[in-house]
Amino acid sequence: MGFVQEFKDFALKGNVFDMAVGVIIGGAFGGLVGSLLKHVMSPIIGLAGNVNFTEMYFPLKKGAGFTEGMKYTDAQSNGAMLGYGAFLTDVINFIILAFVVFLMVKAFNTAKKRFEAEKPAPAPAGPTTDQKLLMEIRDLLAKR
Predict the structure, then answer these.
(1) Inter-residue contact 83 to 52 (CB < 8 Å)
(2) What is the pLDDT of residues 75-117, one digit of tens each?
(3) Of 111, 81, 92, 1, residue with least CA distance to 45
(4) Of 77, 74, 78, whose CA–CA distance to 65 is shortest?
(5) What is d(CA 21, CA 18) in angstroms, rounded to the nearest whole number?
(6) What is the distance between the terminal CA atoms of the chain, rounded to a whole angstrom?
(7) Closest CA to 84 of 55, 60, 63, 41
(8) Are 75 and 59 in contact (CB under 8 A)?
């Protein structure tokens, strides 16, 4: 089999195509949840705690223009800053995203079980060709 044919067989398999669709939908879903977190959840969390995590930082080396209470982006231009607030925001976003994905998988599995339970039981399979042959031999021997 040629290289091109092998690649064609690989690329057109259902598994690869399904995985590509999953990655594309996952990326879009990640953007959707990211927007939900940034524009809806973060402001609510900020109101509840009156805290903006992204502005939390620790100065490692203060530059000449650094003053206490500066925004993180401004402080970065005035020395080395450890922006742990942005990391905390990303951790919280990850936990929320993982929880939403968990809920989706749980709902999918529940629906799948419900649909499988609603299917009627398949009719019992008839005898195989070997079994039919053995039954014929049995019948012939019974006639003797």
Answers:
(1) no
(2) 777 778 888 888 887 888 788 878 877 888 899 889 888 888 7
(3) 92
(4) 78
(5) 5
(6) 57
(7) 55
(8) yes
Question: What is the per-residue DSSP string for 44-104?
Answer: HHHHHHT--GGG--EEEEE-TT--TT--HHHHHTTEEEE-HHHHHHHHHHHHHHHHHHHHH
pLDDT at 14 (0 to 100): 65
pTM greater than 0.70: no
Ramachandran bin of 37, using left for φ above 0, alpha for ψ from -120 to 50, beta for the remaining angles? alpha
Q: Measured between alpha carbons, how far is 56 from 140 in angstroms, rounded to an integer? A: 90
Q: Across-strand partners of 117?
A: none
pLDDT greater than 70 at residue 51: no
Which 8-state DSSP code applies to residue 122? P
Q: Which two tokens stand for residue 2?
A: 């040629």
- Contact predicate 54/84, CB 8 Å: no
Residue 119 sits at the vertex; the CA angle it makes with 117 and 121, to the nearest 5 degrees, is 100
